[in-house]
């Protein structure tokens, strides 16, 4: 690890180098962006953040010029991540872990796709009333809890016809096997709901936002109220790894499905619209959890998944992404799970 003095020296050199490259023609745009997102910096940090913002802005503009010419099927846009480096974003947003060995296999049911499933070519659970509003995980690495609540909300809607926003903070505080704002996996969130006998609503157990607390998941911070439980699950289903056909059938027949994706690219961070797809020959790594709420199937290869994110409505298509379907983009079909409702109990 670098000593404080050496790290500080590198920081100062970086600031001086970057500040000399600032573009005065975007000064007004920079001020507007800071005002829009409530950004304030110490004097010694602003040049660095401005330089990162300019670098990201240039990348966005360069990409969109190529997209306008037909090279890409999606466009980028400046958002609230604009002043962060890709490394900072990866660290902040790397919230899906790989602790699958912690999951009780006895509660897992493998979803097997049909040879010729009778399912529609397109479905969108938003139009059916089964998806809550887009939420914001903030700087907490809690994507796993948002993905899990989204699947549970869909499960509850399918069972009762009622859409209720469920509590991510309930899972952050009470899912002892997960790591709170330091990451987790959806299966263990479903296990928590099974063990504690339900999950509270967002209204009764609101999200704390950006708090990273040493007390999280020690059991003492759990404020779950059994009498205010909204829904229960007694197991979870897992789709066969990398089976997009099975994933499509599950979304059609069961409802919204929790998935892991590789969200490390800067273009993913600044996705704005269109059908996202990358030609990535490097090693894929699942870093982020999202929720598939629908799809549009096309035999011509232009189909897409509809994914709900937890980065607020400032990202993507008002918080959603259309992801190219059929080539396992971002490894979307590698880790796909959904809760199974308790048939005997619950509302």
Account of the 3D structure:
By secondary structure, the protein is an alpha+beta fold. Helix content is 32%, strand content 15%. The chain is built from nine helices and ten strands. Strands 1, 2, 3, 4, 5, 6, 7, 8, 9 and 10 form a ten-stranded mixed beta sheet that branches. Helix 5 crosses helix 7 (186-196). The longest helix has 26 residues, at 43-68.
Share in helix: 25-40%
- Overall shape: it is globular
How would you spell out the order of helices and strands?
Answer: HHHEHEEHHHEHEHEEEEE
**Can you give the mean pLDDT?**
88
Supply Rg. 21 Å
> What's the β-strand tally?
10
Roughly how many Å apart are the termini? Answer: 53 Å
Structural class, from helix and strand content? alpha+beta
User: How does the major sheet shape up?
Assistant: 10 strands, mixed
Helix segment count?
9
Strand composition percent: 15-25%
Uncertain regions spanning at least 5 consecutive residues: 1-13, 210-219
Using brief descriptors, characterize the structure shown.
single chain, 347 residues, alpha+beta, 10 strands, 15% strand
